[in-house]
Amino acid sequence: MGNIFQCCRGLLSFFKHLDDPVQRGAEESPLLSSEESDFDSLDDSMINPSTGIANPALEPEHFLFPDIILSSNPAGEVTLVEPMVCLLVSEEDEAQGDEGDARDGRDRCFSEVETQTEVETQISAEVQTQTDSEAEIQTEDDKGITTSTKAKSEMEPNTKLHEESVAGFVWTEQHQVLIHPSGKGSERTEYFGAERETNNTDEDFQVKHDRSDEDPGVHNVKNEIIHTDEPGDESIFNETHMNDAENIKRETEDQDKNGLQPLSEEEPLVKGVASETSEDVQLSNKRKTLPSDGEATDLHEDEFTVRIQPPGAESFDLQVSRQMSVSELHHVLMDHELTCHRSCFSLQLGGAILDSATELGSIQGIQEGALIRVVEDLYLVRDVRVHLRHVRNLLRSLDPAGRSLSYLSLFTRAHQESDSMEKGSVSHSPPFYILPGCKERRLTPLQPIRDDWKPLQCLRVLNISSWNPPPGNRKLHGDLMYISILTMEERELSITCCTRGFYLNQSNAFNFNPKPAAPKILCHSLVDLLSQLSPSFRKNFAALQKRRVYQHPYECIRAPVQVCTWAAPPGDHSLDCVTSEETDGQIRDWNEELQRSRELPRASLLERRHRDRRLFRINSDFVAAAAQGAVSMTEGNVMPLNPGEPPHLHVFVWNNLFFSQGFDMSDHYAPVGGDAAAHAAAMCDLRGVQAYASVDTEGLHTLGTAVVDYRGVRVTAQTVVPGLLEKNLEQIVYGSNDNGKTVFTHPRFLELLGESSKSLRIQPHQVLDHSDSPVELRSAVSTVGIFGSDGRPYILDLLRTFPPDLNFLVSAEAQQEVPAACRSFGFPQRHRHGLASLRPQLVEAFVQHRYELFAKMASDDLGHQFATEKPEEPQRAAEQNRRNIFWKACENVDSMSDSHFDIRFNPDVCFPGVRFPSECLPDVQRQRCLLWEAAAFLLSNQIPAVLRDCLDHKAVPMDGATLTSVIHQRGVNVRYLGAVLKELDEMEEREKLSHVQRISISEVITRSVKHIFRTYMKDVEPAAFSAAVSHFLNCLLSSSSAPVPDSCSDELPSRRRSRRRRTQSDRANFPTSSLWAKLTSDDLWSRIKTEAEDYYHYTFKSESIEEEIEKQNLQKISLLREMSIKTGIQLQLREYMFECRHKPAFSEDDVVNIFPVVKHLKPTSTDAAGLVQQAQLAAQRGFLRAGLDLLGQALTLFSSVCGILHEDVSKCLRLLGQLRYTLGENDDALILQEKAALISERIQGTDHPQTVQDYTHLALYFFAGGRLLTSLQLLYRARYLTLLIIGEDHPQIALLDTMLGLVLHALMENELSLKFLQNALTLTSKYHGAKSLKHAHSHHVLAIVYESKGELQLALHHEKEAHILYKNQLGESSDSTKESSEYLQRLTDQDAILQRAVRHIASGKPSASVSPPKLPNHPVILQQLNLTCGITFIPPSEKELRAELNERRKVQIEDVEYQLLNQNGNKQQL
To answer: What number is the average pLDDT over the span 1226-1232?
Structure first.
């Protein structure tokens, strides 16, 4: 989009010349986006038009077909039981049906109940399903919710910490704080599932009661709720397989004893906004206070249990939250095992229907144990469509297609029984492609086959009947829709959907007969009806339900943003007319929903939580709609607003969203780079929106924004400002839309932006307008302020929020200002656009650096003054001297203020077209010098800091995404990769950073390829997309001498051409006339070299990409992965023969799909982020209980705001697991880490580096719990993923190989163990140094294995090497040196005994007894694994042990006293 006003200007120009001849008329698309949807909102059935359970209209005289009767109780009173059998024709009920049209809501999130402990309730009970945000906001407004006059007291920065501390902390090279164990973990819970049988009668003409014969052991388990924030097919399933009765009791007692890993280098102190966009902004938020103690307590005291009574089934308990709305409870029940087949029902309490938008806590009469009845509602057409889609989703609930994948349970469950077998009875050898030294990289194991994903077909066809829509007379009788079904028995069924449910009619493919067919049964649920009509359906659906229950709940919850894997197995496309009937959904006013959510009160913690949750949900919906709209727009399914313009200048409005493409409209970006600047402006604007959203100034409004890259086209989606597209609206009141020619200002915007400019470090400044009058601004001149027709102040075009990067802005007058540090790196360099800016992390780092200089200068001068100050000197003179000292320090660091430190930047000092008043020119010059100093600081300080982080293993990048995150944390832009590589080449220890060099070069190649691919796809016609993509990949990675594009096998030859004249060669060369088909490998490599030189300023000296890959030891499969992820290409999951010289590696059939790559805002809970920071600080200082409480509150907030599947939740779980493990509670750590690993797989990808890290930690916890084989398989999986991502030459492989060697040693596989340990020794020497402690530990581990094998000479050799390193690095007095010395002496004695015995045997003398080889010892191996992972347990001191013992005695005494008091009270009552 770049600039939304340029789009509007083009539209106005188009409307003015509407009568002119249309240019390029042939390009006018006949496809129009429908604003009317016949597929109505999914939540429209939530409000029941009836007022009670009994319905007087359910009398036989109202039935259309009297032979279909109701089920009744013996007393004759009609009750709403499982299948309702009434087809009403009364006018009264028809009127009630019309009233149902006013039902509000939207897509339901099908969630299911999860049995949990109270600990998990705090985590999960706050996670909410998606509801109609606008309706909820309106409800809140109707209730008159206002900001409280006085906020509750907030927690002080120095939280009162518990007086519990640890003996000490040890920081190892892995940067983990270690704590001595102080407790014993409970037993690991096992999986078990609840089986349910459905008993149905075979009587015709009667209602059927589906009652569940539940397992008593499962029925009595208390159910609790996890709500999701996204609508989806499966949200939560019973987690009874995750918690047994013992574990429930144990976790209930320990619900507040959660912990976290103290602050480490690997886990940043404060995480900011999640994902790539979140890293761009780390700014101070207005809400800096932490929740008060009372508010934090409220988070844990708002759960209670209600009893749910479904029709025709036994009631069950459900734990809910007071903040949960009725519609969210509705979604939960739609996924509960007992009610998942229902979708059209209302909830009643005491005979009154509950409003869908009301929170449970505000309902009068609801309390612990309250009975909520599920009452079946009348269907509308939209409800029928919802029900059909819900049934379709239930039948496909195990289908992995279309959802984020997870394979963790495949490795944890498959080897659960094998762990209990004898160690020698199971093969422990890995596949050959995982062994050290293997160069083959297999792709198919990336997605192993899961038995529980095998298709379980319940129906052959579920189709919308051709007899739709019902004729008028049938509509008057209640018919809504007809569906056709083909069962597994090959029986064709024609079913009528009426207002009361579903029944079988007598129609077929050729004759229409709506009368009921035998058996004459009407059921409220289609699942109930099919269970009666098809035995195969009943059997398979029951088996499907059992599988759903067996799955881990986190595998079934729908992720807020789906992760599309870059490789997918070939799948069959099935008939699905239910999906084809779906439309784009109802038109939503996205801007109104977003802005009203931002205006919600934020005074208290609960208000902020409610506001953040609403913003997160709306943003998630907005992102999904933006991606869908961008795809539709790119594929030509939406008519542009300006069809007369060239296609690349088209703009669109779809679903109340404004879409524009990344091209320069009206030459607006001509001064700064044209189309290249317009393409970059989209991301710059998104970062600016994120910055102002992080500051969150009350009263200042920004637009919802998302950037979508699809098929080489960049699309910007934004919410529509009310009145912006109207011709008579007075638009701009602040800023400039013509590059500074006309500038406006407004006091309201100056006031609002004045608050934001402090946090964003923007200097208020003056510029000249078109009349040469000074105009005050508090933002960049390109930032536009308008008042919408709703009266709200909006700021747009925030692409220049951050200071410009002068290293990439070349101007003749600036050559003399360039610092020496910039010149040494070859800067300034010419960039393709003039929008290059500094990252916010760099701005904060530079300001912190200047503050340190300021503090040092001021303290030195003040110290000198105090030393020389005379007592008789007047106090006023001393004060003046101190003011002069601060004034001098402020001037030296370029502070904006003379009295205190305040550094800000003027974003307009280098912008072309901006003019400044003459009196401001000196300040402008100072600002320019300050920007040069910031640019030099980036080169001289931050780039070396990035390499130091990697050298010290504080950061271990594994692929392009993690490398980008590492350099972004230091404020370095990706365009500095050339400078990073140059600095790396000049380092003495560059060999230890060879993995960083390979990843950086790979990133330069793949990013350059992405830029080329974007322009390459513009010349491709839609029919040749797959052929063009496969040809491009062949030119990039295939070793074939001359890749030839595929012949477009789906193309049909023209009939005009004579068959005789059409030769085989003509058919093969059909696409070669296209421009894309003329690309060759040499041409592509030449363009890559040019792009790398121009954009990243890195020069490739190789003549071909094959030579560069071999020279840098790159992997083609890793390049393919990076390329696919960056461009959205999805390839077929198979083995690709890159090295074959006779056949291209890719064909057009290998290109499965192209997905949109979406970049968007990532809102989260600021309060929770602050709690995590405080928790880490508390744990680092040794106050564990305070840290545990704070982290538990943070986890509750994150779960409530963002849902379970969020990386902040995963981080909290990971920290909890680490602390639990260090405290010796292995089982708890394992459960928490397993959940963290599942979340990482689902939201970041099965082959993401974070997933590898989570697998590694989980393997350690499994080993500690005695499940050795499971630990081994997890490590094999982690090694395979690492090999696929980066290859074998990486520090992560050294860690994994050491762990694998130790686990195999525990399994007595010494030969296999030595292979991994020898490889680990080599890699450790390379990346940690031959004199490092890591290398000494590798020698020690090898000595242990050699000793167990009986090769004492080799064991002695390696232990001597280890002893020398320990002695040189730590000294002779260290514990490690002493232990090594003792072990070395023991090995020497054993070897001497062995040699003596050998000599005696050789001489024929009786030999002394020789001790057998030492068997593996589990505690010893676990200790070595902990050391490998950087974990050291420090034993408590005698004082601490005594204090802990006294504390336990005190607790026991209190418990005894409490029991005695209760006994006395009971006796008095008796």
So the answer is: 91
Please give the residue that has the higher pLDDT: either 67 or 19. 19
Predicted TM-score (pTM) of this structure: 0.80
Cα-based distances in Å from 626 to 75, 84, 648, 1027? 57, 41, 18, 28
| Euclidean distance between CA atoms 1373 and 190, whole angstroms | 46
> CA dist 572 to 569, 578, 978, 1152, 1387, Å?
10, 17, 45, 12, 62
Beta strands per DSSP E along 420-579: 459-464, 479-487, 492-498, 501-504, 522-523, 567-568
- The residue length of the chain stands at 1470
Asked whether 1154 and 467 are in contact (CB, 8 A), the reply is no
Backbone angles phi, psi at 1197, to 5 degrees: -65, -45
The band of 268, judged by pLDDT with boundaries at 50, 70 and 90, is very low
**Strands 713-719 and 774-777, bridge-based pairing:** unpaired
SS3 label, residue 539: helix
More confident residue, 4 or 565: 565
Question: Can you count the helices (H) and strands (E) in the chain?
Answer: 46, 25
d(CA 596, CA 588): 13
Q: Are the beta carbons of 1132 and 1107 closer than 8 angstroms?
A: no
Q: At what angle do helices 1333-1349 and 1291-1306 cross, to 10 degrees?
A: 30
For residue 664, which amino acid is it? D
In this predicted model, which residue has the larger pLDDT, 1057 or 179?
1057
- Look at residue 85 in the predicted model and tell me its pLDDT: 30
Sheet holding 316-321, edge to edge: 316-321, 303-309, 371-376, 345-349, 352-353
Q: Could you give the angle at the alpha carbon of 996 between the alpha carbons of 992 and 1002, nearest 5°?
A: 140
Buried-state track 1012-1043, b at ≥16 Cβ within 10 A, e below 16: bbbebbeebeeebbbbbbbbbbbbbbbbbeeb
Choose among 1179, 1429, 1287, 1404: nearest CA to 440: 1287
What's the mean pLDDT in 1382-1397?
A: 86
Query: Which amino acid makes up residue 216?
Result: P
Q: E strands of 194-337, at which residues? A: 196-199, 211-214, 303-309, 316-321
Torsion (CA) 1453, 1457, 1458, 1460 in degrees, nearest 10: 140
Assign 3-class secondary structure to 665-729: CCCCCHHHCCHHHHHHHHHHHHHHHHHHHHHCCCCCECCCEEEEEECCEEEEEEECCCCCCCCCC
- 129 contacts 109 by C-beta, under 8 angstroms: yes
Higher pLDDT, 576 or 1208: 1208
pLDDT digits (tens, 9 = 90+) for 679-710: 999 999 999 999 999 999 999 999 999 999 99
Measure the CA–CA gap between 1252 and 949, rounded to whole angstroms. 20
Q: 538: pLDDT confidence band, cut at 50, 70 and 90?
A: very high
- pLDDT bin (cut points 50, 70, 90) of residue 285 is very low
Is residue 1428 within 8 A of residue 1293, CB to CB? The reply is no
pLDDT at 449: 81
Question: Where does the pLDDT of residue 625 fall: very low under 50, low under 70, confident under 90, or very high at 90 and above?
Answer: very high
CA dihedral in degrees (587, 590, 592, 593; nearest 10)? 100
Question: Which residue, chain included where needed, has tokens 């701005």?
Answer: 843
- Which stretches of 289-420 are DSSP H helices? 293-300, 326-333, 381-395, 408-414
Region 144-169: mean pLDDT is 35
The answer for 150, left when phi > 0, alpha when psi is -120 to 50, beta otherwise, is beta
User: 122 and 1196 in contact (C-beta within 8 Å)?
Assistant: yes
Structure tokens at 742: 């006309």
How far the first Cα of the chain sits from its last, in Å, is 79
Q: What is the pLDDT of residue 1438?
A: 61
CB 1296 within 8 A of CB 1324: no
Distance of CA 166 to the CA centre of its chain: 34
Distances (CA, A) of 125 to 113, 556, 608, 1175, 1366: 11, 17, 17, 22, 51
Average pLDDT of the chain is 77
Look at residue 402 in the predicted model and tell me its pLDDT: 56
